[in-house]
Each structure stands twice: as structure tokens, then as C-alpha cells.
Amino acid sequence: MEYLPGGDMMTLLMRKDILTEDEAKFYVGETVLAIESIHKHNYIHRDIKPDNLLLDRYGHMKLSDFGLCKPLGSNSFPDLSENENAGGRNSKSPFESHKHSNLPTTPKRTQQEQLLHWQKNRRMLAYSTVGTPDYIAPEVLLKKGYGMECDWWSLGAIMYEMLVGFPPFYSEEPMSTCRKIVNWRTHLKFPEEAKLSPEAKDLICKLLCNVEKRLGTQGAHEIKAHPWFKGLPWDRLYQMEAAFLPEVNNELDTQNFEKFDELGTPAETSSKSGPWRKMLSSMDTNFVGYTYKNFEIVDEHHMPGIAELKKKNNKPKRPSIKSLFDTPDPPDLPVQGNSPHHLRNQLGASEGSQPSRQSARPPQHQHKPPRR
User: Fold this and answer.
1) What's a single GO CC term here (predicted)?
2) Dihedral sign from CA coordinates of 225, 231, 236, 237
3) Residue ranges making up the domain that contains 301
4) What's the number of domains the chain is made of?
């Protein structure tokens, strides 16, 4: 698997707050090309978000995490929770009654206050098992059946975040975010402080809308032809200089990724003593939690501490299939009749010259085999 040391879009947005329209245009353009490539292979990504937009050492974007990809084999797809009971189109969605529900009122914040609040919570959501629903299309949440258009909605939400600083439907509670998404006509707004061009606002509004009117429904060429992308060399995006050049000191550099505030207890204790202390350098600690078992390959690089680790983890090897057949067990002798005399003879043949006390004792009862 290729390692991309340039970081990801989530970390870049956390550090830069917002992008200029030229920077956003470059990365939105490369995201369009990545999504278009997946759709050409008849797949829907279904999880387009800044966390999955990785940057190589030259600052060019690559799309990752295909765990939720689905083939374009039908007009409707199951919801994102694969463990839920399949209810089909008639299943009741928890957001189905959004028109009759009262959304919790959130305090009115300035763009900067909302940005700081989002960044604080975004870091926690990024590493939680719940995640964030900020980029999910409404038709996915409503379980109405959906197609590749849901990826273009996610692109619109990411573009909004690049230029404004936070997603368009951000709320403190994920459920409230979901209700805002399905009720997007009311909640899609641009802060007064945000300086967006009319073309940028128009493209965002044409991505965050009904499926029937959403740009990209007929193909990525609809998005490429939008006036906001005027002058963008689509055929040379990956050959030109990237909008952002990350600082990369070596091929395993991790400085462009968000650091965990604290490591788990196992990693802390294991790194203080034993062979781990010899192995871990300042660069290695970034990869605590990863495993590797091919010590024969690692030996070639003469890494410190490998010998001690191998001794500690020296376990007997499992026998190969060949070795199991090289030393066959003695053949079992068939038992004929029900005579103890026959049974004793067979036991003696299998046990060799090691008679037991029981076999040396003369039999007290002798039975003749029945006549046939």
C-alpha cells in the first residue's frame, strides 16, 4: 500500500482554517477527477470527506478508503449501516418526520466562532467510532435509494468547508446535523463574513440540492463545465505544481498528519522498557500500534532491537503439511473377533518390548471364540 506523507485535507484545513478560491479550485478539481474515475469503474464511493483526501509529498490529492464502495448495479442501495435490518424503500427513517420536528436551536455564532467550535469537535469526531455525518447526502440518510449523485453532494459540502471553514450543516449533535441535511433548503446559508465569489456560491448550491437538479447527475463533465472552473487545465492537473507543497523530510515523515494528544497505555508502557526502548526512535513512535511479522526482510536492514524482539517472541513453528506425512504413524491393526487373546496380541505388537503390569498378569477368564 502506498504511503502518502503529505497529510490529508482534514489536517490541512485545521491548520489553514480556509483556503483561497484558487487553492480550493485546484483540490476540488482533483477530487472531481478522482470521483469521476471511480464512477467510470461503475462504483460509488459513498464516503467522500476531507479525512479521505490524502496528499502525496508533492501536494497532489489522492482519494482513499474504499470500504463503503458499492457497485452501480441497481438503482437503489442499502443504507450505510450494513448491520441494520433491510427494510427497503418502505423502511421508516429516523429523519422521515423532519418537517414536523423542532430542530434544537443553536446559539448564533460569527464565522470565526463557528470555525473554532467546529475545529474543536472535528478533532474528536475524526478519531471516534461514530464519525461525522456532515458530508452524507440527504437521500442516503432517508433510505430512499440513491446513486452516484451522492458523491457529488459530498463534494459540495467539502467545497463549502474549504471556503467557509466548517461544513454547511454543522451542529454540536450528529442527529441535529442529519436533520439539517434532510432539511437543507432551510439550513443551507453562507455567513455574511465569508468572501465567496458568485460562481463559487452557485456551484455549491448546484451540488447541495435535489438529486434531479444536482450537477454531475449526467456525468462529471457537467461539473467541469461550470464557470467557477474556468481556465483550469483538467488534463494537466496532476502534472502542474500543486496548490500546497507540504514539508516532507523523508518518505516516512508523519508531521503533516494530526497527532494524537495521548497514546494508549499499552504503547506507553511497552516503549519504556525491554527491546522496544532500543527500537523506538522519535520517528518510530509515530507508527506505534502497527504490526510487522516478516523478520527475515527486516533483518536485511540491520534494525536495532530486532534480535531481542525475536527472542522474546520466539514461538515454536507450526509443522508443515509435508512434515506430517514424512513420519507416518504405525498402522492400526484391525481387531478380529471379541477375544481378549487377540486383543492382547495386538497390543503387544503395537507396544513393542514395553509390557505393562496388566499385560504380564495371566488372564483369569478365558473365553473361546464362538463357533460359526
Assistant:
1) cytoplasm
2) negative
3) 265-312
4) 2
